[in-house]
Recover the amino acids of this structure.
């Protein structure tokens, strides 16, 4: 199949991915730009997993203060090189993450940061709520697992649905940026300031 330069350019503008990768994706998608975008997103997430083991020792501090002046966020976002920290994609991600943190108030970045006693406490609360329901034990365990997933979505930044596109998670959003920048990117820490607290 012959792929024209205009379609490659259009795909590049929509995704920020290099020309050769765009051409390969269009060939695989038989010229369908939307399918090619899906292919590139999938590849970006796959390559992000490979890159996630590399150390993100560079980066930037991002800040956001809500227009009311009553809540603000500071976020340290890490990447591998100072060059990547200066890219528009990195800046955009930092700003988006600050907005996400302001809107959703996570307590942790990822699941493994939650203390074990806090997880045990949550499970115990859910178990207590289900007492006397006469449901089989395996059903109760599945319900508790479902409630724990909801707990992770509420408290862990990476598990949260992205406020601008609830069909994707913050983890996937970051993975897409990693796929474009070709470096590991990781939120290192954040703090939320609320007036009077």
């Amino acid at each position: 199949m012959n792929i024209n330069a205009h379609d490659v350019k259009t795909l590049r503008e929509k995704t920020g991915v290099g020309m050769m990768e765009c051409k390969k994706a269009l060939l695989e998608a038989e010229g369908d730009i939307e399918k090619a975008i899906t292919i590139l997103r999938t590849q970006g997430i796959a390559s992000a997993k490979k890159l996630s083991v590399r150390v993100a020792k560079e980066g930037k501090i991002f800040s956001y203060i809500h227009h009311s002046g009553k809540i603000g966020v500071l976020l340290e976002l890490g990447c591998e090189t100072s060059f990547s920290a200066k890219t528009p994609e990195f800046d955009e991600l930092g700003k988006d993450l600050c907005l996400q943190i302001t809107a959703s108030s996570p307590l942790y970045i990822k699941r493994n940061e939650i203390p074990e006693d806090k997880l045990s406490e949550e499970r115990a609360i859910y178990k207590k709520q289900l007492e006397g329901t006469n449901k089989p034990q395996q059903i109760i365990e599945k319900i508790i697992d479902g409630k724990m997933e909801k707990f992770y979505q509420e408290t862990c930044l990476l598990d949260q649905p992205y406020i601008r596109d609830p069909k994707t998670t913050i983890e996937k959003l970051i993975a897409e940026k990693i796929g474009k920048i070709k470096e590991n990117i990781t939120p290192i820490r954040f703090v939320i300031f609320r007036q009077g607290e």
The longest helix spans residues 33-51. The mean pLDDT is 85. Residues 58-110+156-194 form a domain with the Tetrahydropterin Synthase; Chain A fold (CATH 3.30.479.20).
